[in-house]
Design goal:
- The protein is α+β, with helices and mostly antiparallel strands and 516 residues long.
- The chain is built from 27 helices and 5 strands.
- β3 and β4 form a beta hairpin.
- α3 packs antiparallel against α4 and α17 packs antiparallel against α18.
- The longest helix has 20 residues.
- It starts with 13 loop residues before the first helix and ends with a helix.
Length: 516
Amino acid sequence: MCSSDLRAPQPRTRAERRISSTSGTGGKAMLNTVLRLERRARREPNNGAVQCALAELQLQLGNTKGALASIERASTLENPPATLVRLGLLLERTDEHARALTAYESAGKDANCRIPALVGQGRVLLKQGQTVAATRVLSKAVWLDPENVEARCALAGALVQEGRLDEAATQLRQTLNVDAEHLPAWQLLARIGETSGDLDGEVAALRGALRCAPDADLSVTLAHRLEALGRANEAIELLTRAAEHMPSSPTLLTELGRCQLAHGGAGAIATLRQASQMRGAPMEAIFWLGRAHQAADDHVAARQAFRTAQARGMRTPPLYCGLAWSLQQLGDHAAAIDVLVQGLMQHRGEAQIQSLLAEVKRAAPQVSPTAEPSDPGAARSHALEGRLQDFSVVDLLEFLRMNRRTGALRLAASQGVAEILLIEGNLASASNSNTAPLGDRLLAAGLLTGADLDAVMSGHETVPLGRRLVESNRIELKTLKRALHGQAQETISEILRWTDGHFVSQIGRASCRERV
């Protein structure tokens, strides 16, 4: 027998292929369950309970199309009340709210299914925004069965949406008297504490929720609340225990390291280094690692961490300030000023960046306009830097034009900050902190709608707005070029009058064309 004869047979159906990717006995058990239900559904095509069970499993596996087919099949059958409740829940999960209400109403005609049917109706009405109607239906369910924790918790949710927080809290406490391990009740009680500003109440509710189910997000939230109450040591102990029980969570380790750093706990660097090396590590882990290195006065390591976070797309004011401060401490004043100007171009009017920029400019020594950077990671990126008192903007642009330079010229003055992009010495675009952003200019000119701007502004922050607009066919390229030209003219006419401040150029950046 050849070796190929020993290979396991390949999965035949989509469901089998999906389940085959799950290793271990759990995947095999799931596969057996799917196959058994499919066979039974073929044998009993008029059994709605089987169709519902198959739809539930298909949704669990992510097979929405197959689940919808099973739901539609079940909807055509004469189903008993219990199956109608099950069908209503499936219709809820697939956002078929009107049909879900119909299924629950039919199921509620049977006395044995009245309570779950009323609870289902209440949930759907809440999703539809009918809060008063939902409260009325759920109050009836609680009146019929005072010990039903699902009904009471759902009623509390409706009361919260109505703003009746005290009544909601009463319902939740009664729920927890019946079932102290009811996680949704604890979570909703914590939400009430947060909404009402009752930090102690929120902390107690979060502790109750964690007793029911250890969770990384809940642990982080509770740690933040403990910090707000001035109980940092408790927060560190909590996160330490949580990280021991959930060692694969980079979020927990990141928060633990941040908390250790903020409150003088030992081991912040080791914790954050471990978090930053884990799969799925948040960029915040790398940023806080940089902060921890700064606290240890290791600015070389801090610079590397900040650069890494920046390369991965982090663009927050604290990142710009952290990177600039380490560059300043390493003596690379030009790079520090450049980073801060970048930050101000990204975050107009950011007081923290402006304050640090002024401090760095005051501390910067007088540098020759051809000085080379001290930051090895920024080699050839700062070919020209100095003061506007010594070199006017006109002289700078003429020098760059005559030398056919490609790159960016950034200026920081008392009037604001500006960035001019050039390609082979020719002006490509210009913007400053005083002129209207491109999106606002296009809106004011009637070349773009607010809906179009909102659509392209969500996500993809590293892709220039102009490119997003053109690639999504919301504006023509020639229209964009005219708008950029007008923006550049307005910007240039203003900054030509600047006579004090600092300038930094980045020459030879291949990404200049991409940014325009």
